[in-house]
Structures are given as structure tokens and as C-alpha cells.
Amino acid sequence: MRVAVVGAGMAGLGAARTLRAAGIATVIFEKSRGLGGRVATRYVGDYTFDHGATVISPRGSELERVMLEELPKDELVEVMAPIYLANDDRVTAVDPEGGKIKRYAYTKGNSTLGRLLGEGIESRLEMRVEEISKSGPHYLIDGESFSHVILNPPIPQSEVLLASLGDKRSFPGAQYRQCLSVMFGVASEIDRPYHAILDPNQSQPLTWLSLEHVKCPGGFRAPEGHAAVVVQMSARYSRYSFERSDEDILRETWVDVKRVLDLGNVGYEVGSVMRWRYSHSSNTIGFETANPSGAKILVVGDGLSGARTHQAYETGVRAARQILEEI
Asked: pTM of the prediction?
């Protein structure tokens, strides 16, 4: 028995890790250079930005157990500074979760989580899977044979792979939002009592702002006396600005950042833009709907669960357990 996992997001890693723990030969195929999907980190000069999931809040889930009991913890920190709310540019000292939810980050970047989860699992990086074929009872990917396949791309891309096999499963209910994630390195100190601010009404272009140097203090995210800022833009702004130039997006976004943080005439030293075409699911489909009993190709990811990191991870674990129960 040999299982292919297409896509090394949190769901794919949850599946691969569970299968490997059960002694099942597993191979990950990932189109990018690293593991973790949207739990991603970008390094620009002396600055470190978590431009996908800025914090990890596993909420007592299987992912939290793995993080705290199985993975190395030398780079893991609990984020102590709270989240504040922003309404019409007024920042209010109210944590939307009442300080009850533990939030974590990795000092060298949250992409560390993907790397740790994938350690010891055979991985083919920078390999885009565009079709899957079949030979008898087995599935072929790049000439390699597998008894089962787990698909972790966004649902629309998984549908294309299913169609390449003549599998008629389709999931019109799964929808995704685009998101522009905008990063700024600032050669000035920005000291605030919170690590992030959230617009709960999603009424402004800027809906989430993370102060990376406050989240992980100690010079891990920016040089001493500097600041690293990650901004995630609203679905509306992201949709209408997705194809615009980085220069235009950086210029407009920095105006919003200065206003919200009351920075006056401070400028930024470095800037970068990440375009997430499938940022997170706005509607989901049921796991059972996507993966009927006996299926040899299973679909996982936040399109089945919701946008949170631990929810996606759980779908991968569930798919792996379904395979193990049926062999």
C-alpha cells in the first residue's frame, strides 16, 4: 500500500503524518519550495513576515496536541500581546476572544510548523501535479504508482484533478475569497500594547494588521528599533485590486496603515505583496459529501472545514483514518 498526498498544506500534512505514523508509505507532492501551504513566511532583507496565518490558534485540537507533545518546541512561543478591535480607525482595547484562546507563533516564521510536520516524510517539492491517470487498481502520478490519493489543493483545483480521472465529483458549494497580504518593514519603532488589530465588520479595506515584532519580540522579526507589519486586505479590496501593480497596492495600503497606527509621516523601508487567490473558504462542503465510504481518492482542506489552521489539519487526519479503517 502506498498513498500520494497532493499538496502540503495543513490538511495534506495532517494526512501524511497520520499515515506515516501507522506505517503506511506516503509521498507528498507539493508545487512550491516548502511545506505548510498558507501557513507561510516571507523573508525580505532583515525582516520576517508571516503573510498567511499570522498566528496559530489550535483551540485544543489534534494539531495543538501534536505541536505541544510531538514536535520540537524550541522555536515555539505563545503570543502574549492581545488582539484589539478597530472600528472606523478607532482602536479599542477589547480582545474579540476575551483572552481565552491561546495563540502561538514560531520565532523564525510560522512556516516552521510545516517543516516540522513534514520531517521524515518523503516529499517531492516544486512539482505541480496537473493530472492523475489510472493503471488497473492503481493511480499514477509522474509515473509512480499509488493505491490511494489524497488531494489538498483548493477545491476548484481538486475538481480538475478528479476530472482528469473521469471522476464526476464536483463541489459547486465550495467558494473561496481572494486576499492581498501586504508587508512593510519600517526603520522606526512601532510600540503598541497589542500584536494585531481586527476590523470585525470588514467595512474597511484594511481588515487585519499584525505587528510581527510585537508578536515575536526579541529581534526575531525586525532589527532592534524597527518594525515588521503584515496587513491583510478585505475581500472586496482584494478582489478589485488583485491584478493591480505592487507599487499601487503598497502606496494605497501604507496610507491606511499610517492612519490606523497614527504614524504621521513615517515611511517604510521595504514592502512586498502576496496575492492569495484561494485565501480561505467562505462556504464549505461536508466531509462525507466529498469523501464517500470506499473512496480511493479523498479530498481534504479548508473547503471542507473552515479557514482555521487546525480545522484544515483535522480534515487530513480524518481522511487518513478513513483509509486506515478500510484497508
From this structure: 0.95
